[in-house]
Here is the input.
Amino acid sequence: MEWVALIQKAIDYMEDHLLEKINYEDAAKQVHMSSYNFHRTFSLMAGMTANEYIRNRRLSLAGQELQLTNIKIIDVAYKYGYETPESFSKAFSRFHGVSPKLATVKGTQLSLFNALVIKIVLEGGKSMDYRVEAVGKRTFISKVMAFRNEIINEEDNNEIPQFWDRCRKEDILNQMFGMRPEGKKDLYGLCSPTKENETTFDYGIGVLLDEETVAGDEISLQNQGFQIWDVDPAEYVVFKCYGDNGDCIGEAWSRFFKEFLPQSGYVQTEDTDMEVYYDLEEPGLFCELWIPIEKKKEIN
Here is the structure.
């Protein structure tokens, strides 16, 4: 359960440094994960982002201090990382449902947010269909945009769906469809977490570039705003995502972390993951999710 130990180590780090200026990127460095992969893993496991966890823990502790000690509100605000008493008051009121001033009154009800402890709970009865495929190097023609790491699993965030809509409205998808033969016009959603010390990740919408693709020369494509996206040889676990919208992708990611990884002997690698939207659709299939993996190395 190495990945569980890593997440718990990150939680322990956040708990030990709650009074310092830290965020999810600092926690990711402690466990030697990219900020992108850590953000995705933590939020799926904990049901909240690491930044939300830090904020909730600070506000919970701040409430206890105000109610149990004679500390001044302004001192609590600065102690828990707020630049002004006003910003602290707004955040405190949203979290506790009462103002900091009212929190100093004995008997006022406050919200308690305890430290997380990651545990594996075994649940039986549900099967999880998947396949593992090893593929060689592949190249894609894609439209690429950089997104903030924080949007991964951010509730109600629609930036990537809006990117798809914009490409559709600007006729970019039809342009890519035209590069491929009938029956092979599969679209790929390419997601790369490989940039170190970056606060963004690249997401691309593309088609496969091979001997059947009619795309013109690379300079012409670049002048039209396209990029060449190379994907190195890798082994992937593939999940079929059934549903009417992208919610099924999030559900597949959740089951990957909570069910597949603990039992499979695989670990996720820092390579491109992808969604595949097939030209010849299987009834009810939204897409396939391809996640790069490798067998966990045995320690002698």
In short: The mean pLDDT is 88. The chain has eleven helices and nine strands.
